[in-house]
Structure formats: C-alpha cells, structure tokens
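FAQ

Q: What does a record look like?
A: Structure on top, sequence underneath. For example:
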C-alpha cells in the first residue's frame, strides 16, 4: 500500500529536503578576509597610495580623504625607515600590506583608529572559525572586536619589525554587525601605520523550511514503514 501526499511520497520528500540541506544550508560557508591593503576584488595591493577597500580611518591628525585608508610603501613619506640599530618595516605582501590614513605625511597619522565592519546576519556563530590571524603596528596599539581588546603591543618597542600572533574568541562575535578595530596608542606622530591579516570562516544558518520538509519526510517514511509491517 502506497501513501501519497499531492503525488509525492515520504521518501521523495525526505530526498528533496536532504538535497536542499546539502546545497543550501551546508555547502556555502562564507570566508571574510581581514587583510589590510586589499582592493575591491580582494587582491593585495603593493603600491603606495592604493585605496584600501575595507578598512576605514578615524581620528587621524591629517588624513588624505577621511574615512579612507591607503597602502603605505617605500616610496611614501610615511614609510618606516628605522633609527640606527633597529629593524625596519617588513615588506608588503603577499597576504597583506601596511596601511595608514595618510601615507604621504610622516606626521599626518598620530593616534588614529582603523575599523573593518562586517555583518553575520543569517550565519551560524557556532560554526565560526578565525584562521591565521597576525598583526603589526608602528608605534604601539591594540586590536579590538566589538569593544573587546584582543591584543596590544607596547610603545616604544619593535612592534613594526615582524608579525605578532593574534587570537580572537568566537564568543566575541555578534549575530549582526561586527566591528574589528586597530587603534594606535602612544603615538610619537612620526611614521605610523598598521597591518593585519587572517580570515573568518562561517556557515549559513539552515533555513527553517528545509528542516520542516525533512521532518515531514521522516514522518511519512515512518508511517509508510509501519503500514507495510502491518500489511
């Protein structure tokens, strides 16, 4: 005996639901690249004065075009030439570049803040994973996510000489708008820039309709199985 609903049996409903869950709910994780120095296509720019597509500045001494930030390279006045005996900035690329509000003025940045805003509405925070996070800054500063201080580097020091590891708990993420920030602290207002790289991977929240279809299919399959056993 076959039980049908609108010409579709329970096995077909369950197969359709499983197909939707595979293609829609679990197959398309989102990756957010936090790297400084990207263009609008996600390419890392190495040339000075290139517009950063994601990081926005505030509170700089003399920014070029607020709230924009720009790649700093060796041809810029703001590039970190070290004092005698100290290491200098490491080269731009391959996965990020130095950025600042004003790469053309060694004294034009000061205690600025750079922010990267992203929206996780529709994504499952339980699936979130930060990967390969690291950062550097000249002079000193801190990294915050949604107001939580995740790391800090002192002034004076050699915070600009190499990348420093960065760890961010996924519990600090918000379900909607998130703000990742780099803040310059204790600036000497002479040659300032920051650099960060790493990604966040997160999966979408399964659609309620998909679960409803799956439950309906399972219920019908169970009903069919019981009827067959009773026949």
């Amino acid at each position: 005996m076959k039980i049908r609903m609108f010409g579709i049996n329970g096995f077909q409903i369950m197969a359709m639901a499983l197909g939707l869950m595979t293609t829609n709910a679990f197959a398309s994780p989102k990756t957010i690249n936090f790297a400084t120095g990207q263009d609008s296509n996600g390419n890392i720019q190495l040339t000075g004065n290139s517009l950063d597509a994601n990081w926005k500045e505030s509170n700089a001494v003399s920014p070029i075009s607020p709230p924009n930030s720009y790649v700093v390279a060796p041809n810029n006045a703001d590039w970190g030439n070290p004092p005698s005996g100290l290491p200098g900035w490491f080269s731009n690329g391959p996965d990020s570049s130095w950025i600042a509000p004003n790469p053309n003025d060694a004294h034009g940045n000061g205690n600025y803040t750079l922010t990267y805003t992203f929206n996780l509405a529709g994504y499952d925070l339980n699936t979130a994973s930060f990967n390969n996070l690291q950062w550097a800054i000249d002079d000193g500063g801190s990294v915050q996510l949604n107001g939580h201080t995740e790391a800090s580097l002192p002034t004076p020091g050699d915070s600009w000489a190499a990348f420093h590891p960065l760890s961010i708990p996924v519990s600090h993420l918000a379900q909607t708008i998130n703000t990742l920030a780099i803040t310059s602290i204790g600036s000497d207002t002479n040659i300032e820039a920051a650099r960060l790289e790493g990604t966040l991977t997160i999966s979408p929240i399964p659609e309620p309709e998909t679960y409803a279809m799956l439950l309906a299919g399972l219920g019908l399959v169970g009903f069919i199985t019981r009827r067959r056993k009773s026949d």
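Q: Is there anything notable about this one?
A: The chain has two helices and eleven strands.
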